[in-house]
Design goal:
The complex is a heterodimer of chains A (607) and B (440).
Chain A: H1 6-31, H2 34-43, E1 44-49, E2 56-57, E3 63-75, H3 77-82, H4 88-95, H5 99-112, E4 118-125, H6 126-132, E5 142-151, H7 158-161, E6 164-166, H8 169-173, E7 183-185, H9 188-192, H10 194-198, E8 202-208, E9 214-217, E10 233-235, H11 239-248, E11 254-260, E12 265-272, H12 285-294, H13 303-306, H14 315-325, E13 335-336, E14 350-351, H15 353-359, H16 362-373, H17 381-397, H18 420-427, H19 434-437, H20 451-462, E15 466-468, E16 473-476, E17 488-490, H21 498-510, E18 527-533, E19 540-547, E20 554-560, H22 570-583, H23 589-597
Parallel strand pairs in A: 2-10
Antiparallel strand pairs in A: 1-8, 2-3, 3-4, 3-5, 6-7, 8-9, 10-16, 11-12, 11-20, 13-14, 15-17, 18-19, 19-20
Helix pairs in contact in A: 4-5, 11-22, 14-16, 15-21
Chain B: H1 7-10, H2 13-34, H3 48-68, H4 71-76, H5 78-95, E1 97-99, E2 102-108, E3 111-113, H6 115-133, H7 141-159, H8 164-171, H9 174-179, H10 184-204, E4 207-210, E5 214-217, H11 219-240, H12 243-274, H13 277-286, H14 298-308, H15 321-324, H16 336-368, H17 373-397, H18 415-433
Helix pairs in contact in B: 2-3, 2-16, 2-18, 3-18, 5-6, 5-7, 6-7, 6-17, 6-18, 7-8, 8-17, 10-11, 10-12, 11-12, 14-16, 16-17, 17-18
Classes of the chains: A alpha+beta (607), B mainly alpha (440).
Chain lengths: 607, 440
Amino acid sequence: MNLRERQWIISGIFLLITLIFLGRLMQMQIFSDEWKDYAARLTEETETLTPARGLILDRNGNILLNNKAGYDIWFTPRVCTAAGGLDTNQLALLLGISREELEREFKRANAYASYRPSNIRKQLPAEDYAKISGDLWRYPGIEARRRSIRTNPSGLASHLLGEYGEVNQNDIDANEGYRLGDYKGKSGLEFQWEEVLRGKPGIKRHIVDLRNDYRESAQQGELDTLPIPGSDLHLTIDMELQAYAEKIMANKRGAIVALDPNTGEILAMVSAPTYETDLLTGRDRGNNYDSLLNHKNKPLFNRSMRATYRPGSIFKMVQGLIALESRAISPSTRIFCDRMVIGCHGDHSFDNLEEAIAHSCNPYFHEVMKRMIQDGSTGSVFSDAHSNLGDWAESVRNFGFGTDLGGHFPSLRTGMVPDTADYDKMYGRKRWAYSTIYSISIGEGELLATPLHMANLAAIIANHGHYFAPHVVKSVGDSIDDSFKPERFETDIKPSNFNSIIRAMQSVVTSIDGTGKKAQVPGITVCGKTGTVQTKRVDHSVFIAFAPMENPQIALSVYVENAGSGGDWAAPIASLIIEKQLNGEVTQKEKERRMIRTTYPFPKYFP
Amino acid sequence: MRRTAPIFQRIDWFTAAAVMALMIIGLFNVASATSGADAVDWFDWGNKQGKQIIWVAIGILFAATILLIEGEFFIKTAVIHYGFNLLTLLAVLAIGKTIGGAKSWFSFGNVGIQPSEFAKTGTALMLAWLLSRTSEKIATRDNLIKAIIVIGIPAGLILLQPDAGTVLVFGGLIFVFYREGLSGNVLMGVFSALLITVATILTGANQLNYPVIGSHSAVFMLWGVLLGIGLILWITTPYWIVPRRRKFVRRVILISGIASIGFSGMLHGGMEKVLKPHQRDRIHVLFGIDVGNPDADYNIRHSKAAIGSGSWTGKGFLQGPMTAYGFVPEQETDFIFCTIGEEWGFFGSSFVLILFTGLLVRILMLAERQRSAFTRIYAYGVASILFMHYLINVGMVIGLAPVIGIPLPFVSAGGSSLIGFTLLIFILLRLDAERFTVLR
């Protein structure tokens, strides 16, 4: 080969290399997305813009749950070391935490990422931040970022509203868009209405530099979205009544549920002892939570919906109504108070239905239920009970007992209405008769109900046989939506059958020897019924009532634990609540003073 | 063309224009790589692109000066030029400043001079002088040994700095020998050796699950394949070689087979037994083998990401986030090509590749139109050096070659390299301009 021609071989090598390079560029820049994606991961960062959370308001538009400005303190280890460190003693003092705690946070931040900020002090209220903001610049690597803090300024209705807290790993894994450090509703309405309150987070994409600092918006902001604020929740709660009820129940254990029988709207819902929602936000949440959790009075326990008590004497009204409807008795049926199987109190001996309710005669209702359950239709007491209990239980469930009352409260316990299957399981099939289970005839035994179920019973009687699903959310956002119209439930008991029961409830409150005399309200006819839940210690004091008798506007149940008989504590409290709601002002100052002053445990001898 | 026409009419303007174009492309990209996403402060002389403007100006001044000097001067002083280069290379080892682990720099205030960038010109001149002196055949063993010594001395001194990249560039001078009559077999041999080296290192780093003998290094597979190829060639020789040459061909097959496997075996043994694990890791990183350290290929991953994100047209001048916010280290110098890739896209980067190729091929054309052996040999030297820089630099940035830091001629920031390459090219242009007037 002529040496001169070797130039072509060398040129060929040059061209070949360039062709290989061009092919490689084609692959990297045009055909493959691998490097584009990798570059985007390096240079772009998506910032989540948290929308303002919806407020929760009472029926008059007063704010129950609000958002307030707060600050998180963030720490970037690398910035700090680059500037030569900082005085941890001084900073700990400033942030109000111990030096050891601060150094632990620093260590944690460093382990996470030395060039990225870590949150070392969460939810510092704006007023606290204002005191230290002027000094923060002295500490390199420390910065404050705004965040909104959920607050319940009145401290009311904490059990109902629930807790708003940091998400855990389960929430993040559920893939609903929560990321580490986000907050969400954890219990109560905050949890139940999370989707509505939360709103829709916005997205802002940034170009970042090597240190991950935001530099400019990516794609000229075309992919960015604005956050959509959460909707406000309008409740049926009357904040004034709620406040009054909580004041009355201070230092006691128990519950009050008051609702409007005409709509099922809950006006007040108290579980005592209560706590302030704000104790469970911010840095002291852990300590506060532990002390609340371990307190012997169980303040975190929502008694109004979660505590189940035996209905006791109050159940006699249900018993009477079912018996009337099934024609086992008539209002004038008199039964001898023999006190042989079951004891009684008072000096009555041969009451009719109305008197039996007023006197709370046990033998009367023992006999009433016996007529329904053990009717002799099959010739065997076992078969009688087995075939009749189902109908009875169905009728009781029509009063809401053992049901979720329309399902507006996910955390509501349904309570218990024992049915044939339950007793078959307990005693064996057909191995039980009325004589085995008679204690349910006077509301004891296996029957269980929450204060909400009992308040609902008062509403049913006030309504002569129907109720609207008890609910607490009136509307969402600004729109009045038909979907918030509550369902109507029927007991299938003729309204006329309620007359004698209501008269009996009236006489419980108004007659000279009525057990609920202390429930009287000047100028208002109150219908009520006392109850006593037997416990190993002092009995629980229970009272349900509605008023006014002619045109019921409020139905309620009052529970005071370990306070004694229903007439002594629950009845006067009901009286105060009714007067407060119907008259707007309480004139029974002495009663009010006494109720507020008394604290748990109660004096042995009642005043 | 008149022989006495002014020099500026006689130089090869295509080459000069290509060089100027590369310098201007370099200026814009250095500016982008050293400023943020905002505007460039062009005349901030403390900044890298400010300095680069000054260097380009100085380069043009040098170029003009060279064009005014008689070509005879460069030929006569080739030895002196070369000797001076060797002195500076010795001096830098004694009093040089260490930057990035290599003692390659003379430091004058805030200006650094890198003598190895100038030594390429001296070596190319010396080589041309040496090879053009013999009247008979150039590619004799005597000449070859002398030439290897001429190249070996500066290469050895540079290796002591150590700057392996620049040494590799000297290896490119094999093209000069090839053009001057070195057997093509040597070129083939060198390529084969390179191929076997790469294959040995790549297979040596992996385990393979063999039948019967179980898991062993994959290098055995390579040796098996080499042995297989040898055996097949040996057995099939009668079918493609005339009888009287069979014996010779079989001997060649035997020798090259033993040489290949022996070379590969020694290399593998050296890698495994002689080198310490961290040294082996460094070589593995060069070849893109995962050594379990995510930072090891940090530069090259970011560089590839920057280029890949350029797409067809790129993000636009100053608009590339990877460039603007410092994601690629050394971006204004050795990794300048990824600025082009990110901000000017496939169109911009392939334009630069084509410009380089055009320049290289044009230099070969200049070489072949000379009557003077000196100028021809020198031109091949220039083309080889430029090609090696192009090959290693671009290959590295797009992930086809190991990470070896050498500049992209005329484009990368840095005075020594810019002035060095300007000298290299414009001496050639002056010599080329005299091709009709002077007979050598």
